Amino acid sequence: MDAAAFRREGALRLPGCLDAARVRALRALMTDGPGARLQDSALADLIAPATAAARSLLGPGAFPVRAVLFDKTAEANWAVAWHQDRTIVVRERRKARGFGPWSRKAGLLHVAPPVEVLEGMATLRLHLDPCGPDNAPLKAAVGSHRLGRVPAGEAAARALALPVLVCLADAGDVWAYSTLILHASERAAAPSRRRVLQVDYAAADLPAGLQWAGIGS
Fold first, then answer.
1. Which residues, including other chains, have CB under 8 Å from residue 6's CB and lie 6 or more apart?
2. Model confidence pLDDT, tens digit, residues 14-47
3. DSSP per residue over 105-170, as a string?
4. What is the CATH number of domain 3-202?
5. Which residues of the chain have pLDDT under 50?
6. How far is the first Cα of the chain from the last one, in angstroms, to the nearest whole number?
7. Where are the domains of the chain?
8. Running DSSP on this structure, what letter comes out for residue 78?
9. Which of 33, 95, 153, 181 is the 20 to 30 A CA-CA neighbour of 5?
10. Which has the closest alpha carbon to 93: 212, 210, 179?
């Protein structure tokens, strides 16, 4: 695994990271619809190869802190503008310097942390279906994870000033990204089902008594 390329470019494809049995088992858990934040005790074993990859990239202490399902179909075919992922999920609200604003989504407590927290994270997208050029592959701006926090109004211009990677995938592939990378996706031109389990990883505890929510039920 080319960890140096990941640090330099902010994105790395891991072909065939998940075997067919794991893909089938993960599909069976995907029952809550797109955007669902998953808390399931079965996940840790099923995503073990992705966790091993995250540890190769972030260090041996890396652990999963959030899992989100994206399930794009002909009926649910959306576009996402250029942006950075800026929130994490924690167990309870505490006063901590640089953390905020706070919000609640799908019953889970989200907060925007200091940028240094995000810089130490990786996001792995586990592809449960093929994703070809007409099925809304993620686009990532190479090297944009090194820009720090980018104002939302500048995200598209900053992204398009950099090389853009179109992240095609087969079922079982995993794409690893620096969590701060600028990314976007279009509506699928020829939509077919495109399920992706997105798992965020961290390698350090949070300050001030804050605790990662994790992925266990």
1. 12, 57, 122, 176, 178
2. 999 999 999 999 998 876 554 455 667 789 999 9
3. ETTEEEEPPPHHHHHT-EEEEEESS-B-TTS--EEEETTGGGG-SPPGGGHHHHHHTS-EEEE-B-
4. 2.60.120.620
5. 34-35
6. 31
7. 3-202
8. -
9. 153
10. 210
